[in-house]
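User: Could you check the structure of this?
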Amino acid sequence: MQIEVKIDSSCKEPKVILMAASMTEEVNDILGRLTDQMRTPQVITGIRNDKVEIVEPADLIRVYANAGKVFAVTSRGEYTLRLRLYEIEERLPPGQFVRISNSEIINLKHVNNFDLSFTGTICVRLSDKTTTYVSRRYVARIKKILGI
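Assistant: Sure, the predicted structure tokens are below.
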């Protein structure tokens, strides 16, 4: 892929032109990312002590579902979320957050280490001393992200 930036003082607003020989998966991915960035940012709110607070994605350590509810863990504590896990995943930066099971998303910046010694799964130790596991379904995706 080639990237070209042209600075033109007569340009009133930024303009993106995407040129390709045909519509490919890569082109669709680029278009999706561009349109996602153009949308109004969606905040994540959590409930703690009967108060609704804005939860910054950078503060999230993990988001998980349990007993029909979705919870967000930060260094300040645990919040109950009203959104479903897939809705939270759509609002989080994809390079920083990764789904490790059908019921959990982790922040890669809060991972202390990955233990690959378990057969068929990966043990994840997070900055809040939590230990969780990558389900078998997501092991290949995690290994690809880690470059192993």
